[in-house]
Amino acid sequence: MNLIQVSVEVGYDLRTVELTHDEWAAVQNGQHLLRKVVDYYEGDAFADVFAFNDQQGYSLVVTCGDTDRFIGDIGDAITGECDRDA
User: Fold this and answer.
1) How far is CA 32 from CA 3, 42, 59, 60, 83, in A?
2) What is the DSSP letter of 82?
3) What residues pair up with 53 in beta bridges, in sequence order?
4) Is 0.85 topped by the overall pTM?
5) Exposure string over 37-65, b if 16+ CB within 10 A, otherwise e
6) How far apart are CA 72 and CA 27, in angstroms?
7) Mean pLDDT of the chain
8) C-alpha to C-alpha distance for 17 and 32, rounded to whole angstroms
9) 23, 33 in Cβ contact below 8 A?
10) In 1-86, which ranges are continuous DSSP H helix?
């Protein structure tokens, strides 16, 4: 299955979420979408929340806990297709 990867730079790292083509099209049309991505750092789990079209004035906000890690626009993200086995 082909998915769209949406990545933003946070410090020296990239935080990435994968969306279906339908989700990506909806986001590009201004629809609200929240996606949670669980990752690990030094053995501890944390979750980044990608909020598309959720905050006035910004089309993409990425948070971890109560900390904004990225505030900007979808056009500022790095996007590309990836292929995942179904």
Assistant:
1) 18, 32, 9, 10, 25
2) E
3) none
4) yes
5) eeeeeeeeeeebbbbbbeeeebbbbbbbe
6) 14
7) 90
8) 15
9) yes
10) 21-28
* Residue given tokens 């933003």 in the structure block: 8
Contact (CB, 8 A) for 37 and 46: no
Helix (H) or strand (E) holding 47: strand 44-55
CA pair distance 9, 78, nearest whole angstrom = 9
φ/ψ (deg, to 5) at 75: -65, -20
Kindly state the tokens that stand for 31. 């629809």
pLDDT at position 85 is 67
Inter-residue contact 30 to 51 (CB < 8 Å): no
Rounded Cα gap, residues 30 and 15, in angstroms: 21
Backbone phi and psi for residue 34, each to the nearest 5 degrees, phi listed first: -115, 135
Closest CA to 52 of 73, 66, 67: 73
